[in-house]
Amino acid sequence: MNPIRIAKSWLSYRRTLNELGNLSNQTLSDIGVSRYDIRNIASRSFR
Q1: What's the pLDDT score for residue 11?
Q2: Does the CA dihedral 7-13-16-22 come out positive or negative?
């Protein structure tokens, strides 16, 4: 992977992590995600 692609992937990971982390527990529950799942979901954008 080139450095630009790595940087873009990292930014996408952080953005996803922040956006999901800012949701309430009720909202996460409504979409079928637990707080425990957030890092796994965000890491998919870093691959």
Answers
A1: 94
A2: negative
Question: Is residue 46's pLDDT more than 90?
Answer: no
Which structure tokens are listed for 6?
Answer: 């790595």
Q: What is the C-alpha separation between 12 and 17, in angstroms, rounded?
A: 8
- As a whole number of Å, the end-to-end CA separation of the chain is 10
Helix/strand/coil for 33: coil
Based on the structure, what is the number of domains in the chain?
1
Instruction: Report pLDDT digits (tens) over 8-34.
Output: 999 999 999 999 999 999 999 999 999
Q: Which domain holds residue 17?
A: 1-44
From residue 39, give the alpha-carbon distance in Å to each of 3, 14, 45.
22, 10, 10
SS3 state of residue 46: coil
